[in-house]
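**Backbone geometry record:**
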Amino acid sequence: MPRNRYMVTLVLITFFVISLLTNVVGPLVPDIINSFHVTLTAAAFLAFSFFIAYAVMSIPAGFLVERLTEKPVMILAFLAGTLGSLSFALFPEYRVAIVSYFVMGAGMAVLQVAINPLLRVSGGEEHYAFYSALAQFVFGAASFLSPRIYSYLVLNLEKPSPDSNPFLRVLVRLTPRALPWASIYWIFAVSTLVMIAVLAMSKFPRVQYTTEESAGSWEMYRSLARKKVVWMYFVAMLAYVGCEQGTADWISKFLSQYHGFDPHTTGAAAVSWFWGLMTAGCLVGMLLLKIFDSRKVLIGASIGALLCLSAALFGSAEVSFVAFPAMGLFASVMWPIVISLALNSVAEHHGSFAGILGTGMGLGGAIVPVIIGRIGDHVGLRNGMTFLYLTYGIILSIGFWAKPLISNATIDLRKTTVQPAL
C-alpha cells in the first residue's frame, strides 16, 4: 500500500491538538481557584472531569471506531472538543467548566484510540516505530507550548494595549476582563473547528486492525480480568498518570503559594519545562534502553524522580523551581517502559488489554490530583503532594516484580571488538 504523507501529517497535527487541550489544566489551577473562589479539591475536580472521560471512553471508543471507521469518529470527537471549549468560552463558570471538561476529555479519548492505527497504515508498518516516536515528540511539544500560550494571552489581555494586534483585540471583546485566562478556550474552539473542516475534506485510507489494535470482545476482557498481572499493571498505569498529572497540575499553585512566584509567568514556565524535559528525556531514554534492561532503567528513573520530588517540596524557591521540571526528565521513560512491560507480560488479547490500561490511565489522571487537593485543603498543599511518594513508589516497585515474557533487546557492549591496527 502506498504511503500517505498527507495523512501522517494530519495525524501528527491531531496529536498536537490533543496535547494542547489536555495539558493546560496545571497552569490554570491558580486562576481557577482565585477566579471561582473554590477549594483545592474543587479545582482538582476539573482535571477529574477531563480524565474520568478517558477512563469511561477508553474501551467503548475501540468498538465505536471499528463500527463507524476513523473519519466520522474523529469528526465527532473534534466536535465534542469544540462544544466543550466553546461552552466554557461563552459561559466561563465553574459548573459549566465541569461539564465542558468531561465533554472535551471524551472527545480526546476517542481520538487517541482512532489515530494510532491510522498512523500505522498511513506511514507504513516498517516506519511505525519512527512515526510513533515522532508523534510523542509532537505531543510533548504541544504540552511545552500550551502553558506559554496561556501566559502570552493573560499578560496581554490583563492590561490590553491600544496597539495590540487584531487577534488580541478580538479576544479582548470576547473574554470577560476579570478572566483573561479563559481566552485560551477560544483558541481551542477555533483549533478544533479547523480540524473538523480539514477532516471533512480529507480522504482516509482503509484500516485493517492488528490483534494489538482491535478492541476485542467482552469475553476477552473477562478472560483478562481473571489474571492477577492484568490488575497489577492496571494499578501501575493508574499510578503513572497519577504521577504525571498530580505533579503537573499542582506545580504552579505550589510555587505561588510557598515561594511567591507569579503563576502567569514563572509558574507557567515551570509547567512548560516539566513537559519540555519530559519530551527531551525520551531521547535519553531511547539510548538507555539500548544499553540496559528496561526494569533497571525504570528503577533508576523512579529513584531520580523521588529525589527531585523531595527537593521540590522541601527545598528553597530556586531549588523547587528547578526540581519540579526535572521530575519530567525522569518521568519521560516511565510510560513507554511500563506499557511495554505490561503488553509483554500477557501472551494474547493485547488490544483488549490496551483498553484496560487506558481505563487505568484515565482513572489515574482523574483521582490523584483530587486526592492531593483534598489532603491539601486539610493539611496544606505541600503535605498533599507527598501523596506522590506513593504513586512514584508504585512505579519503582515495578522494576522489582515485573516478569515480562519478552525483555527489551540491548546491545552487549562486552562483545564489541576492536580491530587490530595494521
